[in-house]
Amino acid sequence: xxxxxxxxxxxxxxxxxxxxxxxxxxxxxxxxxxxxxxxxxxxxxxxxxxxxxxxxxxxxxxxxxxxxxxxxxxxxxxxxxxxxxxxxxxxxxxxxxxxxxxxxxxxxxxxxxxxxxxxxxxxxxxxxxxxxxxxxxxxxxxxxxxxxxxxxxxxxxxxxxxxxxxxxxxxxxxxxxxxxxxxxxxxxxxxxxxxxxxxxxxxxxxxxxxxxxxxxxxxxxxxxxxxxxxxxxxxxxxxxxxxxxxxxxxxxxxxxxxxxxxxxxxxxxxxxxxxxxxxxxxxxxxxxxxxxxxxxxxxxxxxxxxxxxxxxxxxxxxxxxxxxxxxxxxxxxxxxxxxxxxxxxxx
Amino acid sequence: xxxxxxxxxxxxxxxxxxxxxxxxxxxxxxxxxxxxxxxxxxxxxxxxxxxxxxxxxxxxxxxxxxxxxxxxxxxxxxxxxxxxxxxxxxxxxxxxxxxxxxxxxxxxxxxxxxxxxxxxxxxxxxxxxxxxxxxxxxxxxxxxxxxxxxxxxxxxxxxxxxxxxxxxxxxxxxxxxxxxxxxxxxxxxxxxxxxxxxxxxxxxxxxxxxxxxxxxxxxxxxxxxxxxxxxxxxxxxxxxxxxxxxxxxxxxxxxxxxxxxxxxxxxxxxxxxxxxxxxxxxxxxxxxxxxxxxxxxxxxxxxxxxxxxxxxxxxxx
Lengths: 347, 317
Known about the structure:
A: mainly alpha; MetI-like fold; about 0% strand; B: about 325 residues; mainly alpha
């Protein structure tokens, strides 16, 4: 019970620090939580929910203006002419008559699922490669590291495009293609952290007591490098969202029937840029917001969890420096004056 | 120094070999192989071809190890095979396109460095002033905005409002430098944006870090002016991690250039690789990936040499 309370208190302190010291990071966390909630409750929130896994289309109302930007007369007309789907379209519709708001809400679901899965999977991959490579050492380490080096030379975008065109356009393939390459790339940091842990006294002790590789990794290394793993995970979130959108934009993303923000920009937004600018602007804003939230939260987490990497906490300012220098000078003058009067020894 | 460079260039050879193995393995994992693509190509124009004959012709009926050595022997000799659909050798296609991609990459790196370093220094020198806050907010915005989104809008709206569009046809730099640069500047600037955001933040934090060091305090107390302290003492030391970052970002920069080349219709390797992937032109894809990997390695080498300039303590052995 005491342990539980202590943990709860620790967690409370962490969040208080996050919101107090790193307000932007707190805002980032809030944005992420918002998108996760939207993704979970997409079926409830969307005005036109998916039916049998397909977005509802209404060709009669294709490319309708967003309701919020309509004039009064247009609003009336929109309500009058509403047919089978009925109702209004708050953010307009695309060329197939799908409601943009619903599309974006379901797109959030796609992004969030991809984000969370990739985050976990890439962390697992990088931990497995990094820790085993460092703990086993020897030729195994050498071979693995050279392979990782050569892997890092191939641009991640190309690997992603290749994997997606090879594996097909499903959600699972996307998760695999996004997480495994980034996991391999992330394994280097994990490896160097593991090596730092490996040389410590308790690890030597463990070896003397007959601890195997597996035991060492699970009981000593992973708990010790956990902060690094967590910051790595949070740091990769933003790039996952951006990568997914870019890939969908190039036409190698998830199936067109799965709503995706990048796909909306590429297919609908680009083609109807003049008649329907909302199709391009709204998903872009959503992507930016999510990437912003992920990046800021990741940065704040890194600063809080890893005090060695404190970013931008310097208290340097030229005005302050000059004032300090002047103060020192005055002190010095006073001291000299005292010395001159012979009040201080050592003149 | 020369010795070091020679050593590094020689070390590139095993790295290229490993990249070739990786690419080869990746391409062999493809479920729909080149054979299917060729059979499909001929059957679409009404010619029936024997699948086994195609496989034998491509050498795909042999064991993977032998396939690799046959292929690798060709690669060493500079023969990357023939494109399946273009009736040209991969080598000739890439030779024409590499300068274009290279130019785009170099302009992007130069632009992002030239913009981000002075701004980062300015932010650090005027920490917590209004200017600093504004620049930091802009940097965060640059970091978050997807490049392809802003590029699509830049491509379409100015054309409609002011009738401005970047030139559609590629002109060589030597033929008409101004027209050539006109084509590259906007895509390079756009793909530099995200980089600028990241680098600016890094330069700022690093400069602040250096400004807290003892030797900088000594410089201040010696009565040196701000310019001397900032450029003579802090600048080079704060550049060390920034150079590392520029080197590390080359591979993500190529991702950006793939998108830019496709959007702005620049005839580079990035455009070619997307087209080749869509039509399943495997030899061409292989060639593109290997060329890109070598490109990354060469830039990393240049960055490592720059490292020596920034930090004389680094031993090049």
